[in-house]
Write the structure tokens for this entry.
Amino acid sequence: MSLEDKVIEASNGVKIPQLGLGVFKLTKKEQFETAIREAIRIGYRHFDTAKIYGNEKILGIEIQKSQIPREEFFITSKVWNTDHGYEAAKRAFEQTCKKLNVEYLDMYLIHFASPYYLETWQAMEELYMEGKIKVIGVANFEIQHLEDLMKHSKIPPMINQIETHPEFPQNDLHDYLIKHQILHEAWGPLGQGNKALLENPELKKIAHHHHKTVAQVILRWHLQRGIIIIPKSSNPKRIKENSQLFDFELTSEDMEKINQLNTGKRYSISPTGFIINPFLNKLMKIFIK
């Protein structure tokens, strides 16, 4: 099965590759170019970036260099907290498209539920209706944010990108998303590479049984939960390894053993009660996604 064959449909019928590549922290030009070229060669077509990552332009350049038709790619970006509001969000969207050198985005997300996200959503709804965005959604939204957004919107969010890994499976939010036909997308699906998680004895046993790595087992666990994943890596070997998930299947017993690893531990700042200020904005590049 090729990577582009494994898709999940949004509520509007748009097909989203279930496996993508996250590019957070990939800012060194040569490293970035190598990672993206290798990912495209392997078969990745889903790439997740954001304004705050500072690499939209170089991603766009590498996609163009591939000479693969634009429509074969699924490109996601996000509107940052300082661009919230109707007019600001419209400007931010146009700037992102210009940097990526594209006429539309496959998916555009509100990065955090910071102030004025309702006005931001109104702008995104209009861009969606104009055909400039194929899928609109949010990231790091909790249930209360989603409830508020759906109460005041014409189009409900189609996806929520949130921190998710075996130690923090987001079970309640996951069930809520399913109930409301909102797709669940995981960032940090490997617990941000936490050594203790990747060396967990139970995971190592499961990995040994399937002749796979622990990372592959964790990513497969996400896939079988119906979650879209965007593991990030600049290592060509890891990028390839992370794509080799479709030739094995975890048993129900395997899934339950991984489910039991839930400790409720986040590896990022909680989005609940998130307050925007200049100091936090500076810290976001370090601590958030």
